[in-house]
Amino acid sequence: MLNYPKNSDFLKEFSKNSKIAGVIFLILGLAGILFPALMSVATAYLVAWLLVLSAFMAAFHTYRTDKKDWLGWLKAFVFGITGILIAINPIPGVAALGIILSIFFFMDGFGSIALAFEIKPQKWWWLSLLNGILSIVLAIIVLAGWPFSSLWIVGFFVGISLFFDGVVLLSLASYANKMDKE
Question: Which domain holds residue 173?
């Protein structure tokens, strides 16, 4: 448990802002769960614009530090072109996000299984093993339907993540209220 000094004004402000953000995240999460294809495309657009912004930042950095650094300019160019291509046609971007998600699940699965065998004598070691097995199953599910499954899986998983972020924020707001009353 974190022990921060009690500041009533801070706790009230934190609680208010966490409630607002929590409700917004819950709504976005439910939208992603109910309309996963729409959330997948929205996620692809977000990634596209982050890449375009990264291209500008990489170009600015290269310009300011070493104008002759062709690798810096290449990085900016690749980020920019990739971002623009995803923004023009987001469906291949969603497919790419699907394969990245699958790779993540494989890595998480193998890491969790390895951790399970490292801590095996411990009481709850099997939870890490179960987590690893489930992550590998998710990776296989994503790969089995790839690239077509990406259109709903990416948005669905982003929706679930946003939903639980909202739950956590609302819980933190409640906890802040409780701390303020103590």
Answer: 14-181
